[in-house]
Amino acid sequence: MKLSNLTHLCVGLLLVIFTAGAYAQIDINSREGVVAINRKIQCSTEDNAETTFVWHGRAWARRTGESDKLLFGLLGMNVRQCVTVTNDAGEDGYRQVSREIMLYLDPVSGEILRKWDNPYTGQTVDVIHVANDPVNSRGANFGYGRDGNVAQLPIRMVGDYWQMNVEVPLFYHNVLAGDYQRYVGGTYHATEMFNFYGNAEELLDEGTALVNPGVSWVRLSQWLPWMEMNGREGVMYFNAQGAKLATWEDLPAMMKNEIDTYYPEYRNAPPGDDDRPNETSWTFFKKIFDERATESVGNSGGS
Question: Of 102, 241, 248, 264, which sits with the fewest C-beta atoms within 10 Å of its C-beta?
Fold first, then answer.
């Protein structure tokens, strides 16, 4: 009898321990699960909960027959939020809105570059950092793929961790090109590759609103317009790593100082109903270039 009681006590304790460690799992094969997982990684399942990403890295150049050149360091941030939207079928999805900055740094000192000595042309040029506002999702995410079926998340479980790889090929109209780009070239051509990773239990737990994953980012692209490369052969590649931060205040002091001085609106994400067209490095450069051209004409005084 005593042995039986002891056995029951042990079993009861095991059940308590198991129950305490158990959690309701998100079904990643369901439409609702796809929405929840994406929101937890990208922002939060709670509306208007702002989250901030940061990344550090370096940018290189490659030309045929030459050794690669380290051009500059990188320091970037993105502040974002998600809001719930409902489709005609009554299904809840979400829309993501964000702003982002990427600063180009001296590869030796780590200081923010204002002028840059181009090793290919010998010219010293003004640096135009990335300040894209907004960078919003093109549409709402309801958990469906382009074929109309429930999307298959590119997530792989590795032990207690998860990994998600996303490749984004880019091939679109270059706002700096003319009306004849189809015939003479001028389309922006690049590829962006993202890898997110973190703890599997945190990701799948229905009881948590977000995860703070690590992230890596690689981009293959053409020369940046402010480099004034004048059509020279070659490509750039960017390699960076970062994470979603606990709070905006965890950004590096250098970034926070730059935002306070030049970009105070980047302390917060855009409003959830923001309907402005997205900004890119190319449209931002065109805006700056056009403003400088207008100022130059104004200062000429009609001479």
Answer: 264
**Residues with Cβ within 8 Å of residue 127, at least 6 apart in sequence:** 104, 113, 114, 115, 116, 226
The values of phi and psi at residue 50, to 5°, are -75, 140
Q: pLDDT by residue for the chain (303 residues), tens digit each?
A: 444 444 443 434 333 333 345 679 999 999 999 999 999 999 999 999 999 999 999 999 999 999 999 999 999 999 999 999 999 999 999 999 999 999 999 999 999 999 999 999 999 999 999 999 999 998 999 999 999 999 999 999 999 999 999 999 988 777 776 665 665 467 778 999 999 999 999 999 999 999 999 999 999 999 999 999 998 999 999 999 999 999 999 999 999 999 999 999 999 999 999 999 999 887 888 888 788 777 765 665 554
In 3D space, the residue among 44, 50, 35 whose CA is nearest the CA of residue 271 turns out to be: 50
Q: Nearest to residue 278, comparing CAs of 177, 171, 78, 133?
A: 133
Phi-psi region of 140 (alpha: psi -120 to 50; beta: other; left: phi over 0): beta
Q: Encoding tokens for residue 173?
A: 């109209």
Report whether 45 contacts 209 (CB < 8 A).
yes
Tokens of 29: 């094969």
The answer to whether 256 touches 54, Cβ cutoff 8 Å, is no
Helices (H), the chain: 2-21, 31-42, 181-184, 200-204, 253-262, 281-300
pTM: 0.87
Q: What residue has token string 């923001």?
A: 274
Which residue from 201, 166, 145 is spatially nearest to 42, judged by alpha carbons? 166
Neighbours of 249 (CB within 10 A): 9
Neighbours of 204 (CB within 10 A): 22
